[in-house]
Design brief:
This protein has 266 residues and is of the alpha+beta class. The chain has one domain. It is built from twelve helices and eleven strands. The strands form two sheets. Strands 1, 2, 3, 7, 8, 9, 10 and 11 form an eight-stranded antiparallel β-sheet that branches.
């Protein structure tokens, strides 16, 4: 089938539109495009952490899979993982993000990096350079994702190129322990208003993880917005998963008044 069109209306005027490719259980739309997994790979990148410990709490696993919003509970979970690793914020090998609190701790990938440090500590791997492609941790993650090409992610670790259909099957490889933690603590995986958090609350049997540049993965589902705009994702999820509350995303002005909507279709 053709790619989906997501339309942004302000009143009766179509202000802009987005072309969206999608692969779901029963249908596909558009092309099987090549994309970078970015943060959608985090449930796979957390496997070395889960393999290394048998006493992890749900919050530790969920935050290792998160693109968090620096909410208090999320920052507390990152600190907990750093303590397990015997590491500090200074050991995190990503940078900072403008407008985020707590320096490097507030980076949206700090939970993933803290989990990587803990996995290195447990396996006797060097902490320094854990983000580099030749480090034992990253070599193990590459094996878990598969023999795919990689580039460098925004937080400095490798990210992997794959087709959209392969991305839709990615979470078949996520172990049950990680699935259960994400389902138990969806608010840590994204945060207030995040598409992945809200989808896991609406469909508790699923796991979901948003990536970057308009990529979103869930069980047997992957969505890629061609122009990279994440605002087109939610109505597509509503259409693919029959979620009425997702079908129409309101457009508000600075007064909080609803002045338009984002929907699938012309």
């Amino acid at each position: 089938m053709d790619a989906l069109r997501v339309t942004v209306r302000r009143g009766d005027v179509v202000e802009s539109s987005h072309r969206v490719h999608a692969v779901a259980r029963d249908a596909s739309y558009g092309d099987d495009v090549l994309c970078l997994l970015r943060s959608s790979a985090k449930p796979i990148q957390a496997i070395p952490l889960v393999d290394a410990f048998d006493d992890l709490d749900d919050d530790e696993i969920a935050i290792a899979c998160a693109s968090h919003q620096a909410e208090p509970a999320q920052l507390a979970a990152v600190r907990k993982l750093l303590a397990r690793a015997g590491a500090t914020v200074d050991d995190l090998e990503h940078g900072t993000q403008p407008g985020r609190p707590e320096g490097k701790l507030g980076h949206n990938c700090s939970g993933k990096h803290a989990g990587m440090l803990a996995a290195c500590r447990a396996n006797g791997w060097p902490l320094r350079g854990y983000r580099l492609p030749k480090h034992p941790l990253q070599r193990r993650i590459h094996e878990l994702v598969g023999g795919v090409e990689y580039e460098t992610d925004g937080c400095g670790v490798p990210t992997f190129a794959t087709t959209l259909s392969e991305a839709a099957a990615l979470f078949d490889r996520v172990p049950g322990r990680i699935r259960r933690a994400m389902q138990a603590r969806p608010e840590l995986v994204g945060g207030a208003g995040a598409d992945d958090t809200d989808l896991m609350r609406a469909r508790p049997e699923l796991i979901a993880k948003r990536g970057a540049e308009g990529l979103f993965c869930a069980d047997r589902l992957a969505v890629k917005v061609e122009d990279g705009s994440a605002r087109a994702i939610r109505p597509v999820l509503g259409m693919l998963l029959a979620l009425d509350d997702f079908l129409r995303v309101p457009v508000s002005n600075s007064r909080g008044e609803i002045v338009g909507e984002i929907t699938v279709g012309a």
